[in-house]
Amino acid sequence: MRVFSRREMVGGILSAFVPVSLLGARQERRTHETAQDAGSDDPLPTLRYVRQAGMRERITDWDNEPRVIAIEKRLRCMCGCNQSIYQCRTTDFTCPLWPITHPRIVSHVQDGRTAQEIIDTFMAEDGEAVLMAPIPVGFNLTAYFLPGAVIALAGSGMLWVLGRRALRARKVAGEAVEDFDPDVGLTGEEQESIRAELKKLDL
Amino acid sequence: MTVLGHISLWLALLLAVWAVIVGFLGGKSGRPELIQSARRSVYALAVVLVVASASLLVALLRHDFNVAYVASYTSSNLPAVYTISAFYGGQAGSMLFWAVVLSLYAAIAQWVTPKKYAHLMPYVGGVTSIVALFFIVTMLFADNPFERLPFTPAEGQGLNPQLQNPGMVIHPPMLYLGYIGITIPFAFAVAALLSKQLDTGWLHAIRKWTLWSWLILGVGITLGMWWAYVELGWGGYWAWDPVENASFLPWLTMTAFLHSVMIQEKRGMLKRWNMILIVLSFMLSIFGTFITRSGIISSVHSFTQSSVGYFFLVFLILSAIGLTWLLVSRLPLLAPESKLESMVSREASFLFNNLILVGMAFSILWGTLFPILSEWVKGTKVAVGAPFFNQVNIPLGLLLLVLTGIGPVIAWRKASVRNLRRQFVVPTALGVITGAILVLIRFGDFYSGVAVAFGVFVVVAISQEFWRGAGARHRLHGEIYPLAFARLIGRNRRRYGGYMVHLAIVVYFVAFTGMAFKTEIETSLRPGESATLRSPFGHTYTFTHIGISQYDAANRFVTAASVEVRKNGERVGVMRSERRQYFTASGLGRQSSFQPATEAGIASGLKEDLYIVFGGSVGGTEEAVYRFTINPLVWWVWFGGLMLVVGGTVVMWPSSRLAIAHARPVAGYRAALVGSEV
Question: Is A116 on the interface with B (CB under 8 A)?
Answer without folding.
Answer: no
